[in-house]
Amino acid sequence: MAPTLVSAAVGALLAAALLGDAFDRRAVAVVVAAAVLPGLDAAASLAVPGATNALLHAVWAPLLAGGLLYWDGELRSASTLREQGGPRAVRVAWVALASFVVAGVGAALFAGEGAALLYPLEDARYLVRGRLVFSTQEGVVQTFLTPGATGAGILPIERVGGAVADPVSSWINPDGRPGFDPGADREFRFVEAGWQLVVVAAAAATLAVRFRFRGEGAGVSR
């Protein structure tokens, strides 16, 4: 699973890019919290077999949340969320959902140990691998989307183990299996590669600039 700090940083970047007029400290906190929420399934693995990268990384939670948001905002005659928090609340909710999917689930699906998208109906964890390059001889080469391909299909998604059979380790549960071992070696990973540090630094700088200009804008409007 991706380091929590990296997921939070991606969530912060999404908040800065998508919140628009709803951008403030509380909204950013909600979006960042949504980004790190999938990682909490590691704690559940202390009691639930194979929960890490599975329980909150499966498609069911975002599908349910997205369905409820769409039903409340588009299908009902009066939206409860809009009535209680206005259009701002609706925007924050959708951005938080995007953060959950992209920064939380996507970090494991595209750049981690994989995500058990159909857990508990299926034990398999899936990982998407691909590349996008420009070659002077072959031109643009990309393997993320392969329309008409046989086998794996349009996405190069592959099975990389089982949620229960091959559990993912975490700092909460190093061996990924039910039970708490107080003597186990635990490592809280902040960043594991240089590019992750760049993402964290970019998120911090982006938020600092957004809050700076937001404060200046508020001062001018007064």
Describe the protein's architecture and organization:
The chain has 222 residues and is mainly alpha-helical. The chain has one domain (4-123, 163-221). Helix content is 48%, strand content 9%. It has helices at residues 4-18, 25-36, 41-44, 60-75, 80-111, 194-221, and strands at residues 124-128, 132-135, 139-142, 157-162. The strands form two sheets. The chain has a two-stranded antiparallel ribbon with strand order 1-4. A two-stranded antiparallel sheet has the order 2-3. The protein is globular and about 45 Å long. It starts with a helix and ends with a helix. The mean pLDDT is 88.
Order of helices and strands: HHHHHEEEEH
Largest sheet: 2 strands, antiparallel
Query: Low-confidence parts lasting 5 or more residues at pLDDT below 50?
Result: none
State the strand order across the main sheet: 1-4
Overall average pLDDT: 88
Secondary structure tally, helices = 6
**Helical amount among residues, as a percent range?**
40-55%
% residues in beta strands: 5-15%
**SS class:** mainly alpha
| Count of all domains | 1
Shape, principal axes of CA atoms: globular
Count all strands and give the number. Answer: 4
- For the terminal residues, how far apart are their CA atoms? 45 Å
Alpha-carbon Rg, integer: 20 Å
